[in-house]
Amino acid sequence: MSDTILVERDGDIATVILNRPEKLNAISMQMWTRLEEVVRELSSDNGVRCIVLRGAGDKAFSPGADISEFSEHRATAEQAEAYGKLVHGATGALGNCPIPTVAMIKGICVGGGLEVASLCDIRICGESSRFGAPISKLGLVMAYPEISGLRDLVGPQVALEILLEARIFDAAEALQKGLVSRIVPDDEVEAEAMATARRIADGAPLVHRWHRKFLDRLADPTPLSDAEKKECFACFDTEDFRTGYQAFLDKKKPEFKGR
Length: 259
Description:
Blueprint: E1 5-10, E2 13-18, H1 29-43, E3 50-55, E4 60-62, H2 70-73, H3 77-95, E5 101-105, E6 108-110, H4 112-118, E7 122-126, E8 130-132, H5 144-154, H6 156-165, E9 169-170, H7 171-177, E10 182-184, H8 189-201, H9 205-218, H10 226-231, H11 239-250
Parallel strand pairs: 2-3, 3-5, 4-6, 5-7, 6-8, 7-10
Antiparallel strand pairs: 1-2, 8-9
Helix pairs in contact: 1-3, 4-5, 5-6
């Protein structure tokens, strides 16, 4: 099943592809397992500066879990709990990935596909993309680890609206709700997503990690400690700061090393 999750490398940018175009990239049980493995492998690769997630082809990012597997793997609560651990392993790896992520969304992005995209840092879609989470029509619940990503992205009220109505809506509404970062013409999605990844990859990787850490920490209402406040100035002791500062003075592009 490794061919259903592909990884392509272009220097310091890795592209992870949900590769089941004949099923609109519906995610099988084995794919959830492989997705977690791939994300964890890339997360520990110091040569990767940005990860792009996409579906194969132009018709869909993903409609979510492969419903045809339900009768065999999710027919009971016990089976569903075991299946859920695989899903949560993949979404947990993605949500905790220290490397910036970009979702390249073409076509359909619903259900579990929307859950995956919502965990990316930036989401770029085409004008004809469609979104939603119509799982109530299947009698299914979006579990805590899955619903948290959607809530964090759009807030509890909008998340509940999406889940209660189970509507499929267009890219303009997705942008209004905060589900996507930007919309571009369909034939420009790939170019814009890769250009975004390049802009990220050209930045200082240590700074990207600090910013993610700081934003996650600010979600906790506990007052910041003196050590946490002091960490905000640790960047000044890095080689990357000296590189970036000198490159700015010299009007050159900095070449950051992550040190």
